[in-house]
Design a protein that fits this description.
Number of helices: 14
Radius of gyration: 21 Å
Bound molecules: glutamine
Mean pLDDT: 97
Largest sheet: 11 strands, mixed
Structural class: alpha/beta
Length: 455
Amino acid sequence: TEACLSAIEGAGKLNAFVHDTSEIARRQAEVADSRIKDGDAPSMCGIPLGIKDLFCIKGVPSQAASNILGGFKPEYESTVTTQLFGAGAVMLGKLNMDEFAMGSSNETSCYGNAVNPWRRGNDDEALTPGGSSGGSASAVSADLCLGATGTDTGGSIRQPAAFTGITGIKPTYGRCSRWGIVAFASSLDQAGPMTKDVRDAAIMLEAMCGHDPKDSTSADLAVPNFEAMLTGDIKGKTIGIPREYRMDGMSDEIDALWAEGRKMLEDAGAKVVDISLPHTKYALPAYYVIAPAEASSNLARYDGVRYGHRAKLSQGDGITEMYEKTRAEGFGDEVKRRVMVGTYVLSAGFYDAYYNRARKVRTLIKKDFEDVFAQGVDAILTPATPSAAFPLGMEVEDPVQMYLNDVFTVTVNLAGLPGISVPAGTDKQGLPLGLQLIGRPWEEGDLLNCAYALE
Ligand code: GLN
């Protein structure tokens, strides 16, 4: 804990940590010390973590990187962090992210963006750590903490993990409780660990997940010992390579990385087969209808009354002016864009044409996966991202270009499946690249084991 706290102090330029909780950390570390001395150390005992700002921590600023939650200190604690602290973990601080987890570069944060610790060769240009869990990725990659919590609605664990050379898993929808995590798109949001390697991910995931009566979508299933499942033996497993993920204009480097991953899995004894997921091309448009629709509804609660910020009002202003001024001041541009898109696609005249259509597409995408799993495929291998980390400021002016970053990751959220990104080498300029494995529902243990074979 002390080593991490001093590393954080020296790494201000990364802007990864946005709220310091070192006092809490030191107290937790002391308790962990005595538990270790008593021979009563649980799985995460004394492990220093960073916590994404989307998680509500009792008495600690929890702002989802938004000005509208300025000054908000929850009275309650998220289930995931309760479980992590119960397992002995130490909280170093809150981590930077895109505002309300909307973004792929960490540039929508009210704190300013986190920075990727990696550079292109000798080039000094600052790169994005990815988003929305950019602070988590940057902090783990730069050794400021041993692991971090992330959340993934459309790729926000896997894309930043790929951009910073770390491991990140989004579990099956319902594995981790969403209680106490600020909601973005409730039917897609899942928490997961971001760690140095697959073994750490297995240990941390086990501590994070489990049934929670406070979240009606949390699954009442036993949590396996994921670490014990890491045998590295994938003989007899069938891995699918989906042809629709070979996008037009895909770079040779990403193509070569994918082929290399395929070979590694074959060498480890897996059977690799070509598969088809025919509705893949509709995933991104469907996601960018469904996610904003749910977000517009979830974000209606920020009204200047219940949480955080309230605008200064003028003489004669009524409740409508209070809502309008508070939301105009409190939300950033990307959040406003999503609220407008979401409200539009849910409006009476357009609901069927957009929202309902997107839900039907979502069902087809889910069915594509069910079909290949029914044919005996155990896991699916794809690139995690279409490129390596890009320079900050490059795509922020063009939202559609930014949305294209999520092309390989959103299908997994729409289908509710587990997906993991593992580091898989570097591009010509020395930047990390990631491969993604997608697993069967509830089979995170097998998925982690396949990923282990890629390490
Ligand atoms: N980049 C995607 C978005 O902006 C995904 C975000 C996420 O997974 N939280 O919606």
